[in-house]
Amino acid sequence: MFGHTPYSHPDGGLRWPLEVVGDGWSAEWSSDRPLTGRVELTGRLFVDIGSQRSDNPIRVRGRVRRVQLVEQRIEHTSSGLRAVDGTERLTEIESTPHRYWSNWDTTSTEDHFQGTGVLLDLDLDDVPATKVEFVAGAVSVDGPDVWVMDRSNPVLLHLDTRSTPPRVVEYLLPLTIEPPTDQWTRRVHADRDGCWITSRYEVFRCDRARDGTLTIERVCAEGGSSVLVDGRLFLVGSTYPMLGFDRRYGAVRVDPDAHPVRMLDNERRLVPIDDPATVARVTAQPRRADKARGADDTEWVAVVGLTAQSPDGTRRRVALDVQTRGVVHWIQPDPYADPANADIMARISVPNPRTRSID
After folding, report:
1. CA nearest neighbour of 223 among 255, 174, 272, 262
2. Can you give the pTM of this predicted structure?
3. Are the C-beta atoms of 190 and 156 separated by less than 8 Å?
4. What is d(CA 280, CA 301) in angstroms, rounded to the nearest whole number?
5. For the chain, which terminus, N or C, has the lower number of CB atoms within 10 Å?
């Protein structure tokens, strides 16, 4: 993986984190030499929840041909329990047990065998067909209007809850496809005229006309965590120092932003907010993109599907069957004609050659 610094191995020497990509799969591999290009490896693939160094790992899909329970001998040590390498035994099973594999709580004081995982035989040449479907990732509500954003794809749904079931309109937006994650990659903030869409990279404005046409425009090429307070959009950065993971340097100190709270003003410029009361109010707002609460206290949750929980505790799944494909009007900014860039254009533009008159 490019741009990652090596780490010191307990056995001595350095290890470079590499990403190896095969036919329908990808994995992380620690090498004792820096390598690029093709390589031949022999081994097994295993899940490592604590890794994820790759920026965009390939999601492996295939047909499960065999499932085996892996059991290992667990021994007591001075520091707790540990699985003994080389003691693995396999048992054929029909399906993966539903359990937390890292939980080794036991009342036994003797060494014993315990399930530590499963071994799958995965056929990568017989991949089940993928059904293209909307995966809900973010939701926001304003009155009867519910806006739901796909977790990865630039697909926005508008639900009109005044009808039963809600009328669903799909809008295909001129945005990038983001690498799929287990949470949202964009946020949506509803208001009476439409909604804001934000990500770590940018801010877009979506206005919905009475005929249902959606006008979308990028208003800012900066992004971050966002909240909507009293109709104003705020971007919220870091307010205190922390330790972050840098792909090049590992754990590093990250200082707070000079202006942790910025507001998009009427000219659609980000202006710093330094008033302590406003900063406290904005930073106190909930910032989960997958939950929203309506004026009637109904809680909407967008996690793969969409659910609505009424104040009495009744929870229902909301069907997202698209009834209409909405019309999208895209306003594309022209940086060359933007008056704010006139000084730059003056420096980089080549004047037209003068025409010479012929007597």
Report:
1. 262
2. 0.77
3. no
4. 26
5. C
pLDDT tens-place string over residues 198-223: 999 999 999 999 999 999 999 999 99
For residue 72, give the nearest of 58, 57, 89 by alpha carbon: 89
Q: What's the CA gap between 3 and 245, in Å, rounded?
A: 13
Contact 226, 270 (CB under 8 A): no
Rounded to an integer, what distance in angstroms lies between the CA atom of residue 245 and that of residue 253?
9
Report residue 169 as tokens: 């309109």
Which tokens is 83 given? 């699985």
Residue found by looking up tokens 């009495």 in the block = 312
Instruction: Please tell me the distance from the alpha carbon of residue 102 to that of residue 13, in angstroms, as a whole number.
Output: 29
The string of pLDDT tens digits covering residues 149-169 is: 999 999 999 999 999 889 999
Task: Supply the pLDDT for residue 54.
Answer: 67
Q: Which alpha helices (H) appear in the chain, and where do they start and end?
A: 276-283, 342-348
Residue recorded with tokens 């790759």? 54
Q: Give the whole-angstrom CA distance, residue 118 versus residue 71.
A: 9
Tell whether omega for the bond before 165 is within 30 degrees of 0, i.e. cis: yes
